[in-house]
Amino acid sequence: MLIAKHLPSAKDARIYMSVERTYLGYIRFSLYTLSFGVFLRKLEILSDFKQVIHVSVLIDFLAKASAVIGVILIVTGLLTFYLDLKYLDGGVEVSPKETTDPRIYMASERTFLAWIRTAIALIVFGFVIEKFEFFLKQLKEVFNFPIKGNHDSLIGIGLFIIIVGLLTLALGTLNFYRTIRQVDEGRYRTHTWLYKAYGLIIFLACLVLTFHILRVI
């Protein structure tokens, strides 16, 4: 966004934190989209169960579209984040006076809350996956309805996403205290490696789930 708008670049802590919050927002939006895809997949299975074929085909298309959009959002968020950081790193240094601005501390609190929102979204998303697997299992065992593909690994995926959500909460807390310490020292830079590793884990988890929605695996 910074590059696209040709905005002035400065190594301001508030701008770095704003970029971080935007990145976390992309992750949450992607999770919401994939959750919608899982919900649509459940509706599609119910449509098959009720033998409403024309509705089933439409829902199947929407579920696949949601899965693809979710992955695109993750990739877009990653690229935007890294390009914006590179753009900021090439900007001018801010004066020491600006590093003691109370608004920087407020920005760090907003960033911490963004981490918390992302953690909650991940945990809820993990439970959605778990419930979806339980739904498929009950549909197969109680109603003897044939389910396409093997969905046993959904339990592991859901549990993994829940664990990532808990780790996100811990990372957000540690990052918050690190941010406050650096602001007190008059300096702040984004933990690029942390966001790279975190984004890669989220991307891989979403990619595997997308393959499930697309019935590739």
From TrEMBL:
Domain of life where this protein originates: Bacteria
Pfam family, one: DUF202
Membrane topology of the entry: Multi-pass membrane protein
Protein name in the entry: Uncharacterized membrane protein YidH (DUF202 family)
InterPro entries in the cross-refs: DUF202, IM_YidH-like
Cell location: Cell membrane
DUF202 domain location: 15-82, 103-181
Organism of derivation: Hydrogenivirga caldilitoris
Membrane-spanning intervals of the chain: 23-40, 61-83, 112-132, 153-177, 197-214
Keywords associated with the record: Cell membrane, Membrane, Transmembrane, Transmembrane helix
UniProt keyword Signal present: no
GO CC, one annotated term: plasma membrane
